[in-house]
Amino acid sequence: MTKDRVVEVLGGRLDGEVDASDRRRAEYSSDASNYRVPPRAVVFPRTDEDVAVALAVATENGLSVTARGGGTSVAGNAIGPGLVLDFSRHMNRILEVDPQARIARVQPGVVLSELQRAARPHGLRFGPDPSTQNRCTLGGMIGNNACGPRAVAWGRTSDTVRVLRILDGTGVERTLANDLSVLPGLAEFTGAHLAVLRTELGRFERQASGYGLEHLLPERGSAVAKAFVGSEGTCGLLLDATVELVALPKAAVLTVLGYPDIATAADNVAAVMACEPTAVEGIDARLVDTVRAHRGAVPDLPRGGGWLFVETAGDTPAEALAIAEQLRGSVDALDSRIVTDPVAAAALWHIRADGAGLAGRTPDGQPAWPGWEDAAVPPERLGDYLRDFADLTREHGVDGLLYGHIGDGCIHVRLDLPIADAPQRFRRFLFDAAELVVRHGGSLSGEHGDGRARSELLALMYSRRVLDVFAGYKAIFDPADVLNPGVLVAPRPIDADLRLAGLPLVPASGGFAFPHDHGDLSTAVHRCVGVGKCRADTRATGGFMCPSYLASKDEKDSTRGRARVLQEVVRGALPWSSEAVAESLDLCLSCKACRSDCPAGVDVATYKAEALYRRYRHRPRPLDHYSLGWLPRWLAAATRMPRAANALADNSVLRRIGLRAAGIDPRREVPRLAERSFRRRWRDLGGVVPPAVSVDELDAAESPTAAPETDTERPEVMLWVDTFTDAFDPEIALAAAQLVQSLGYRVRIPARRVCCGLTWISTGQLDGARARLRATLDALDEHVRGGGLVVGLEPSCTAVLRSDLPELLPEDPRAAATARAVRTLAEFLTEQPDWQPPQWPGRTVLVQPHCHHHAILGFETDRQLLATMGINVTEITGCCGLAGNFGMQRDHYDISVAVAENGLLPALRTADSESTFLADGFSCRTQAAQLAGRRSRHLAQLLLER
Predict the structure, then answer these.
(1) What is the CA radius of gyration of the chain?
(2) Model pTM?
(3) What does the pLDDT average to over 729-750?
(4) Lowest CB count within 10 Å: 113, 356, 411, 735, which one?
(5) How far is Cα 883 from Cα 312, in angstroms, rounded to an integer?
(6) Nearest Cα to 730, choosing from 740, 719, 741?
(7) Residue 507 in contact with residue 38, Cβ under 8 Å?
(8) Residues 6 or more apart from 254 whose CB is under 8 A from it?
(9) What number of other Cβ atoms are within 10 A of residue 578's Cβ?
């Protein structure tokens, strides 16, 4: 049956959806591993019946079936060439939480953090807690037998499972619990292989490689459900799972122990484990140095070059503290620190969390990859293993940052493996690493599974007898090898299907220079390794990524999904003009949150601009590229006759006709132009804002005959007058000028109208952007060369000058100097030693940071400034949804509103009517005004309020 015929049959029989488009196949061609296997089609089942239908159609047509949850597998066990079933889209319900029995029943697509949220009011939680818990699914955790740092106390996923309801490979529904008779032949199979199961499997807690068949043993309760855990989708498709919950600890204390190095710390693990901790994590000094370089500082750590983070729990704080004191007295650490304050403890744990994300780069900035990121050895062998592993990496010339679950003997490391240019060296290293871990009695995987990354290496870890037992076990469940073939049994070679192997270079070509990726667009888009943080809702911890995915819950609209499509383009599988590329990038708001929030530093906003540039250069463009992309041109003309422009905008019929003709959604209002632009008012004021006059009362004080300021003795500050502030909100620039003048500076603005090129960048008109940025450099050069600062008021334009400018004009030495001279208003003010902000204790302010402020400029200075004013601040996290031209474009209105409903609009609805709404971004102010009727203030205006 042809691909289209398979899709047609499935489409007619499913309640859910099936998609075999080039875009969708690209999005699901990889997970978080090194491997690329485009599927025949992707199915989004809604019901158990949908799962059965997909399996039946696949079997009838000789296609494989691969189950997928959050797609965070680093071993390559969530990709396949046939049908990929994404359970996270629809089959994501928590069916039951029983606090008395301490169990939950969930569908496979439930995200772990959602289960934790549902269990928390009952004083319960699910025990295992992998670092991906805010996007990984229970189905994926069951597939991989996931663990996390607290497995030392609450066990692995297999320890929590009671009942699993599955479809086996023949399409028969089975309920797995503790009865071997559930599958024909399983009892006989177990009885025939008791010796192998007892002697070669289950030797230590983190022996995760292969199947966990030790659970079938009678002395282990004939636990068929537990044995199924870790089968990586090769034996059945999960329909729902009943899992055990554990009680939340009543009190916890963190003890940080310092050692000369991480191997010495591992030598001490037996003494640490004697106090029965709830978590034991290890990090080395290079990881801490990397976090420090990224964040600027880390909390104080005890003396040492390697540390153990040990959490102890008790029924009371005093009991938890007593255990920590006992621990400190029983170990051989160089130094220690006991932390009882939960906030301080959380800050220390963030070192570990941030380090895990930053481990995707080596200390010298090279990409680091999974593949050998998950090995485990018996804890008593860990110190010696780490020393031998350090020798092995030196021998092979690879490097990476170590951290891991030291109490379990499981070590995580990503290495700069030569996948792209020397896959044979990659293969050789993995075989040598496998032999090393086997010599130490260990396991290829401690919790991530074997997948495509390690299944071939099982032959080094296990005898032929064990491999035959594995094959026999799978055959009982899946005799036709329909489910996830090539994994665990009859494995694919570890160097087959590598995503990076043989990729061509895609050098910069007139657009962005990609200086952080050696000038190679291919390297840039392959920053995405698929960890999937873009699918997580991180707003509660200050995250902004990814607003379109949070609104749609479609992989298409995630940072990862877009990167996967662009990876197909740079490898030559899709052209830049492909509809797949257009669809993938269409709902990207260019908010740049991924640039700061993604652990790998993926920057889809830049890639989108580059993609539009390569597609449309020297070709006709969409209408909105001219109407919105050239907006500064049109506003320069409109500000000469603002009343006429506003009158046209006020005519609803003409406005709708004009907006449609311009490619703009007619449901949008047109922002009103100021009666006089800032540049005109500045000219009329003679370049000085009277210090004793409120900016709101300036009209009466202005005189068109005022003489220009002649005081040249005072130091100068260049006020960057962006198009939006000039045309729509001149009061903001006047307020900023008054503030700067009050500090003894002489305020200048560029002598002629110049533009940062923001709208040209966001529409991919990069030649035009470069031309405008060169003109900007010409206008600012003398001031910057004289040591002057440039203060920006509109965050998006300020971010262009700091970030896009040097990346679009890397050959111009003025670009880097100008970027260094740029300040936000808050940065400039807080750098002034004699300036003190006004004090408004008890005042309530609701603040919406602009996305580019968050991602490029950093909002921390503004946050600290507001705190010093004594203000009660409520900070909205996430994009406002307008995002420059995005929310104005045709067909974007609904998604723009949906994004706003994830943060801005609920916050405005619940805000105190007396509170001030603070928004420096023109887009944020416009969205609040148009969707909520709420007026806003800029920081400059707020600081001048009396």
Answers:
(1) 30
(2) 0.94
(3) 96
(4) 113
(5) 45
(6) 719
(7) no
(8) 309, 310, 311, 324, 338, 339, 345, 348, 349
(9) 18
Looking at residue 704, its pLDDT comes to: 46
Which tens digit of pLDDT belongs to each residue from 357-385?
778 878 777 888 999 999 999 999 999 99
Pair of tokens at residue 463: 């005898």
Residues in Cβ contact with 78 at an 8 Å cutoff, skipping those fewer than 6 apart: 31, 66, 67, 68, 69, 71, 72, 84, 140, 143, 233
pLDDT at residue number 1: 57
Nearest to residue 376, comparing CAs of 204, 130, 250? 204
Residues belonging to the chain = 946
Q: Are strands 17-19 and 41-44 parallel, antiparallel or unpaired?
A: antiparallel
CA distance 78 to 64: 12
Q: How confident is the model at residue 351 (pLDDT cuts 50, 70, 90)?
A: confident
Q: How many CA atoms lie within 13 A of 766 on its CB side?
A: 24
Does pLDDT of 829 surpass 60?
Answer: yes
Provide the 3-class DSSP secondary structure of residue 67.
Answer: strand
Distance CA 135, CA 662 (A): 39
CA dihedral for 75, 77, 79, 84, sign (positive or negative): negative
Q: Lowest-confidence range among 2-11, 43-52, 256-265, 568-577? A: 2-11
> Amino acid letter at 414?
R
Q: Is 507 helix (H, G, I), strand (E, B) or coil?
A: strand
Contact 926, 932 (CB under 8 A): no
**DSSP H helices in 230-337:** 262-267, 269-273, 285-295, 317-330
- Mean per-residue pLDDT, 557-576: 97
44: β partners: 17
Tell me: pLDDT of 135 over 70. yes
Express as a percent the part of the chain with pLDDT over 90: 90
pLDDT (0 to 100) of residue 707:
41
At residue 539 the predicted structure's pLDDT band, cuts being 50, 70 and 90, is very high
Residue 293's pLDDT is what? 83
DSSP string, 662-676: TTB-TTSPPPPPPSS
CA–CA gap between residue 870 and residue 873 (Å, rounded)? 9
> Which of 356, 373, 498, 382 is closest to 430 using CA atoms?
373
Which percentage of the chain shows pLDDT scores above 70?
97
**What are the start-end ranges of the E strands in 488-561?**
none
Phi, psi of 336 (to 5 degrees): -155, 165
Phi, psi torsion values for 588, nearest 5 degrees: -70, 125
CB-CB neighbours of 8 under 10 Å: 14
Q: Residue by residue, what is the 3-state secondary structure of 113-180?
A: HHHHHHHHHHCEECCCCCCCCCCCEHHHHHHHCCCCCCHHHHCCHHHHEEEEEEEECCCCEEEECCCH
Coil/strand/helix, residue 384: helix
Q: Over the stretch 602-634, which tens digit does the pLDDT of each residue have? A: 999 999 999 999 999 999 999 999 999 999 999
What pLDDT score does 358 carry? 77
pLDDT given for residue 705 in this prediction: 42
Token pair for 101: 């029995």
**pLDDT at res. 13:** 96
DSSP, collapsed to helix, strand or coil, labels residue 874 as strand
**Mode of pairing for the β-strands spanning 335-339 and 251-259:** antiparallel
**Residues contacting 131, CB < 8 A, separation 6+:** 148, 353, 356
The rounded distance, in Å, linking the Cα atoms of 206 and 410 is 7
Closest-CA residue to 880 (of 535, 532, 533, 539)? 539
Which of these, 137, 147, 56, lies nearest to 94 by C-alpha position? Answer: 137
DSSP assignment letter at 385: H
Asked if 81 and 58 touch (Cβ cutoff 8 Å), the reply is no
The angle subtended at Cα 267 by Cα 264 and Cα 271, nearest 5°, is 125
Region of residue 502 (phi > 0: left; psi between -120 and 50: alpha; otherwise: beta): left
Distance CA 177, CA 174 (A): 10
**Rounded distance between C-alpha atoms, residue 799 and residue 855, angstroms:** 9
